[in-house]
Amino acid sequence: MKETGRPGTAILSCAWNALCVLSHRDSGSASRSQERYRRAALSGITAVASKLVSIGTSLLTVRLTYRYLGAERYGMWLTISAFVLMLNFADFGMSNGLINLVADSLGRDNRVAAKQAISSAFWMLSGISLILTVLVASTYPFVNVSRLFNVHSDLAVHEAGLSALALLACFIVNLPLGTVRGTQTGMQNAASNNLWGMTGTIASLVGLLFAIHLRAGLPVLILSLSVPPILALLFNGVALFGGEERDLAPGPSAINRDTALLMLRVGATYFVLQLAISIGMQTDNVVIAQIMGPTAVADYAVPARLFSLVNNVLIMLSGSMWPAYADAVARKDAEWVRRSFLRVSIAGAVFTVFAVFVLMICGNRILAIWVGPQMTATPLLLAVFGVQCMVYAYLQPIGFLLNGTAQYRVQAICATCMAVLNLGLSILFVKYLGIVGAVLGTVIAQLMVQVVPLTLVTRQVLQSLPQSFEAEAQERSAI
User: Is 291 in contact with 431 (CB distance < 8 Å)?
Assistant: First the structure.
């Protein structure tokens, strides 16, 4: 199919390539482009299947837990979850930094370097988990969790500490297993990870139903939802490193000092990026809980989950391209990077406009079916969530392209500025506008300090790739 600048043709071309390449295997450098599309398509298809399962279980989970726990305990759960999500930076960005290192090493057919990166990441993350375990065990007896999350009922106060401890324990155990996700993503083999994730999601729903049947408390519900995905990821790692990729299995002897230092440098930048995103995107629940109380968190978080489904689809669309971009850069295929980025961006924008229109029109009907008639959202809240989705649709493909080209620093700077501005605006707006203010603060912050600078950087990256490849080739020929 011919290349064209028309959006409709670009989308059809992208779909055609995705369907065609599924039946092709890599047969040399000439077909490497198709191989990237094939792997990205398989990752995308399994991600869609996994996400459909996740959406289905999420719909049932929200409906079951909201009614079972009540507004205050459900709001406390969401607030604790937001705090734990903010701890994603605890791996210092190493699991995500591993993606580029693995993709680059395998793109250069250097499996020894890939094993060194995997081993360095796994054992450093294991050390971080041990440090966190000691830290949590030593501070837990002195923290009043119920006061921290502003809950008042006797049952919520009683469950607050154990609920937070359960989520923290699951997070700590899961931390080293991020190596499995990073490795498979860097290998463009996220399909296996998605299938294992689907298994864990289904098992977590079964566990939740069993816990509710036993009339268990919130800590047990948290464990029933969190432990099965961890076990699925563990089995995934055993299958990965115990099978065809046994030579990549992390071992202490494969830790390389230079690789570990590189991992720390890359991870440190990604750490700042993750921390800024966590503060910028996960503090809304905390701000609302402190200003309006935990009951208001549910009024914000449930509609937010509805619109987050759109964002999750965008991540599936763009996320599978991250290691593909890194592979293309390693193989000096600049034209493929530009062409693929354009296609993904257009497809994401078209999907988002359609999805947002549907949710803004039918949002309350969906919420009533999903949770019940007691859950409603104002038209203004739905509209602001819709605008936020459109901003995400613009930024998501940019973020994954910059990840694939190792442009972490500029993202970290922009995300840090966004986090600071968003937190201040959210506190101010929530006081005067209610829960709408939390979303509005995020949108304004992103528009002011992310959209424009990241657009300029992306344009510069796409224009400079061919020149950088030519300069490297000339340098090598001179040597």
Answer: yes
